[in-house]
Design brief:
CATH topology of the largest domain: Arp2/3 complex 21 kDa subunit ARPC3
Distance between the termini: 136 Å
Strand order of the largest sheet: 4-3-7-6-5
Radius of gyration: 50 Å
Structural class: alpha/beta
Largest sheet: 5 strands, antiparallel
Number of helices: 21
CATH class of the largest domain: Mainly Alpha
CATH architecture of the largest domain: Orthogonal Bundle
Number of domains: 5
Number of strands: 19
Helix content: 40-55%
Strand content: 15-25%
Length: 691
C-alpha cells in the first residue's frame, strides 16, 4: 500500500513539474492564466485519480488532496475552484461508498489552499519549510476527519489502514511539490526581472541621443541604436552589413588600429576621428569605446562637427584679433617714421629746383613712402583702427558709380555683371570703405580667373532668425556677394584667407593684405564675411552688413579752398616723436608761423607759462606718455582760454573715440600727412570760432 501511494505521489510530482513548464510559456493576462492554471491543476488531479489506491469497493485514495491544496495555495481561488469542480465531478462519476468523503476532501483541500494563499500575501514567510509542513499536515488531518462520512461498517477499518501513510507520506509529498512550485516561482520572477531589465536597458539604448555602435573583433558592426543609424544615414539592416572600416576614411587606419589595440589592453579608449555618412559627407565624432568581451566592443559616438567648427571660428577670431592688435601697433609706429620721410621729401623737393636727377631720386623716395603709407592704412583697416566717417549708403545707388573704376581693374576678357537687389535697405558705412571692399574683392576675383570669365556683383536683403556661421547675430542685413568663375580654393587656403600677408598668388603679385583689409572693414562695421569655394568651381564672397534704420543725411557741401600761408599766429606743437616734431616745426615755420615746440605735455605747459606773447593754436599728438592730447588741451585752456586746438595721430578710432575726438566739431589730422594737408588743417583750425 505504501509503495502504491509513493508511486502515485511520484506521478503527481512529475505532473506538477509539467504544469509549471506549461504555465511558464502561457503567461498572457491574469484571469486567463488563472483559468488555464485551474484546467492544468484539474487535469493533474484527474490523472492522479486514474491510478488510485483501492482499499474497499468504492473507497479509493490518491493524491488529489495534495494537488488541490497546491492549486489553492499557488493558483488562487479561481484555479482551485476549477480544479476542485473537475476532480469532484470525476469522483462523483466513479461513485461508491467513499464518494461523499472524496468530494469533501476535494473541497477542504482546495479551501485550505486558498486560505493559505491569502495568508501568504500578508505573511510571505509562511511558505518556508515549517509553514509548508504545517499546511500539508492541516490538509490531511482534515482529510482524516472527513472519514466520519464513510459508512459505519468500514470507517474504522479504513482509518486503521490509512492513518499512518496519510500523516507521513502525504504531507511530505505536499511539501516536496510546494518546494518545486516555489522554485518555479522564483525562476519565473528572476526571468521576469531579467526581461524587464533588458527591456529597460534596451529602452535606454534606443532613446539615447548619442550613437551607440557594437563591433566584433573583426570590426564588423553587430548592433546599433536608432541614433547611430540617423548619424550615418543608414537603415539598421544596411549599417549592420558594414564594418568600422567602411564608415571610416582610409586615412584613419592607423588611428583605428591604435584604438582596438588600446581596447584589447586597457579595455577603454577615447579619441576623435571623422566618419563617412551614406552621402559621402564626413563628420567629426568623439568616440568613447570600451571592451564588453574579448570579441565585443562598444562605442558611444557623439557628433562634434558643429562644436569643432565653432571652436575653430573662436581660435581664428582670437588669432585675427591678436594679429590685428599687433598690426595696429606696428602701423602707428610706422606712421611716425613715414611722416618724417614724406615731410622731409616734400621740403627737399621744394628746394631741388631744376636738378632733374635729384628730383627723380626724391620723387622715388616719396612714391615708395606713399606706397608704404597705403600698406599702413591697410594694416589699420585690418586692425579696425582707421578713422572712418560712416554715412547712410544705398548700395544699389553707390555701386553703379564704382563700376567704371572696377572695369579698369579687370581684363577685357572678363565680364563684370551687376545684379542689384529689389528695394534694398540702406547700410551705414564710410563710402571710401565700400570702395575698398569692391576693389579688393574684384581684384581678387580677377586674379583667380585664368582666361575668360565672369565676375558678378549682387545685393539682396536678408533677415536672420538665428545667428549664422559668419558670426552675425539675428537681425536684418544687406548682403553684398561677389562671385567669380575662377580656379576656386581648397579648404586649407580658405582657413587662412583673411590673415594679413597670406597669399596664394605667385611672388610679386600681391601683398596679402587685400582680403585682410576687407575682413577688417566688415568687422569694424559689425558685419560678417564668408567664402564658399572649391577647386575648379570658382568662389563666392558674401558680406552681410547690418541694416541702418536712421534717416538719410543731407548732402555735405564741398569745402572752400583754404590758404596755405600763415601770418603772425603762434602755434604750440607737442609731439613725443622727435623726428615728427622737428619736421612739423620746420613746415610751419616756412609758412610764416611762430612755432613753439615741446616733446612732452609737461614741457608744453611750461612753455605756455613762460611765453609772454599770444598763443593761437595747440597742435598736439593724441597718445603720449603721462598725459594724452585731450588732457593737455584742457589743462592748457586753463592757462590760455582762447587757444584753439588741432589733434594729430597715427592711432584712430579705438584710441580717439573714448576721448571724444571723433566728433565732427573736433579738428583732427591723420598721420602721415603732407605739408599741404598740415597747412590746410592749421589754417582751418585757426579760422574756427574761439572756444
Amino acid at each position: 500500500m505504501v509503495l502504491t501511494l509513493i508511486n502515485n505521489l511520484g506521478l503527481l510530482v512529475a505532473l506538477s513539474v509539467l504544469h509549471g513548464q506549461l504555465m511558464r510559456h502561457s503567461r498572457q493576462d491574469r484571469m486567463r492564466d488563472q483559468l488555464f492554471s485551474g484546467l492544468l491543476f484539474g487535469a493533474v488531479a484527474l490523472v492522479g485519480m486514474l491510478t488510485p489506491l483501492r482499499l474497499l469497493d468504492g473507497v479509493i485514495f490518491d493524491g488529489r488532496s495534495i494537488i488541490l491544496g497546491v492549486a489553492g495555495l499557488f493558483g488562487g481561488p479561481v484555479a482551485a475552484g476549477i480544479a476542485a469542480l473537475m476532480a469532484a465531478a470525476y469522483r462523483i462519476w466513479l461513485g461508491g461508498a467513499g464518494t461523499l468523503m472524496g468530494v469533501c476532501v476535494i473541497g477542504e483541500a482546495a479551501l485550505v489552499g486558498v486560505a493559505f494563499h491569502y495568508w501568504r500575501r500578508r505573511h510571505p514567510q509562511c511558505v518556508r519549510m515549517p509553514g509548508l509542513l504545517a499546511f500539508g499536515l492541516l490538509v490531511h488531518v482534515l482529510m482524516l476527519a472527513c472519514m466520519v462520512l464513510l459508512p459505519g461498517g468500514i470507517r474504522t477499518e479504513v482509518f486503521r489502514q490509512i492513518v499512518i501513510p496519510v500523516l507521513l507520506i502525504f504531507p511530505a509529498g505536499q511539501l516536496l511539490i510546494c518546494l518545486l512550485f516555489l522554485d518555479h516561482e522564483a525562476r519565473l520572477q528572476a526571468e521576469e526581472e531579467l526581461r524587464l531589465s533588458e527591456q529597460r536597458f534596451r529602452s535606454y539604448v534606443e532613446h539615447a541621443p548619442d550613437a551607440i555602435l557594437v563591433a566584433d573583433g573583426r570590426r564588423r558592426l553587430v548592433d546599433c541604436n536608432p541614433a547611430g543609424c540617423a548619424l550615418l544615414d543608414y537603415s539598421r539592416e544596411e549599417l549592420l552589413r558594414r564594418t568600422v572600416d567602411d564608415i571610416s576614411p582610409a586615412v584613419e587606419e592607423d588611428k583605428l588600429k591604435a584604438a582596438f589595440a588600446a581596447l584589447a589592453g586597457a579595455g577603454c579608449y577615447r579619441y576623435e576621428q571623422p566618419l563617412v555618412r551614406r552621402d559621402g559627407r564626413q563628420i567629426q565624432v568623439e568616440v568613447s569605446a570600451s571592451r564588453l568581451s574579448p570579441d565585443r566592443f562598444l562605442a558611444i559616438v557623439k557628433d562634434v562637427t558643429e562644436r569643432r567648427a565653432l571652436e575653430m571660428q573662436l581660435v581664428q577670431a582670437r588669432k585675427m584679433e591678436s594679429v590685428g592688435r599687433l598690426a595696429g601697433g606696428v602701423a602707428h609706429d610706422f606712421n611716425n617714421m613715414l611722416q618724417a620721410i614724406l615731410g622731409h621729401c616734400s621740403m627737399a623737393l621744394e628746394r631741388a629746383g631744376a636738378d632733374a636727377t635729384l628730383r627723380e631720386d626724391l620723387e622715388g623716395v616719396q612714391q615708395a613712402a606713399s606706397r608704404s603709407a597705403d600698406l599702413t592704412r591697410q594694416l589699420l583697416t585690418f586692425a579696425r583702427k582707421q578713422v572712418i566717417a560712416p554715412r547712410l549708403v544705398d548700395l544699389n545707388a553707390a555701386i553703379p558709380g564704382s563700376l567704371k573704376m572696377l572695369g579698369r581693374l579687370i581684363r577685357e576678357d572678363i565680364r563684370l555683371d551687376w545684379r542689384p537687389g529689389w528695394e534694398l535697405w540702406r547700410v551705414e558705412i564710410d563710402p571710401s570703405q565700400l570702395d575698398q571692399i569692391l576693389a579688393n574683392l574684384v581684384v581678387n576675383a580677377r586674379d583667380a580667373i585664368a582666361g575668360r570669365g565672369t565676375i558678378t556683383l549682387e545685393t539682396a536683403n536678408l533677415t536672420l532668425a538665428a545667428a549664422d556661421a559668419d558670426g552675425c547675430p539675428p537681425g536684418e542685413y544687406v548682403v553684398l556677394a561677389v562671385t567669380d568663375t575662377g580656379s576656386g580654393m581648397d579648404v586649407e587656403t580658405q582657413q587662412h584667407l583673411f590673415e594679413p600677408f597670406f597669399t596664394s598668388k605667385p611672388s610679386g603679385r600681391g601683398t596679402g593684405l587685400g582680403l585682410a583689409t576687407v575682413y577688417g572693414i566688415v568687422k569694424q562695421n559689425r558685419g560678417g564675411i564668408s567664402v564658399r569655394s572649391a577647386p575648379g568651381q570658382g568662389s563666392v564672397f558674401r558680406i552681410c552688413l547690418p541694416r541702418a534704420l536712421a534717416a538719410p543725411e543731407p548732402p555735405v557741401a564741398a569745402a572752400a579752398a583754404v590758404a596755405l600761408s600763415g601770418g603772425n599766429e603762434t602755434v604750440l606743437v607737442v609731439e613725443d616723436e622727435e623726428a615728427v616734431l622737428k619736421l612739423t616745426r620746420r613746415i610751419l615755420a616756412r609758412h610764416g608761423y611762430a612755432v613753439l615746440a615741446a616733446a612732452s605735455p609737461d614741457a608744453a605747459l611750461e612753455l605756455a607759462k613762460a611765453h609772454a606773447g599770444p598763443l593761437d593754436l595747440l597742435l598736439t599728438d593724441v597718445v603720449m606718455p603721462g598725459m594724452n592730447g585731450r588732457q593737455l588741451s584742457d589743462r592748457l585752456r586753463q592757462l590760455r582760454p582762447a587757444v584753439k586746438c588741432l589733434y594729430m595721430s597715427g592711432y584712430t578710432d579705438q584710441a580717439l573715440d573714448p576721448l571724444g575726438l571723433l566728433d565732427p566739431a573736433v579738428y583732427f589730422l591723420k598721420k602721415p600727412f603732407s605739408s599741404k594737408e598740415l597747412c590746410e588743417k592749421v589754417r582751418t583750425a585757426l579760422g574756427a570760432p574761439t572756444p
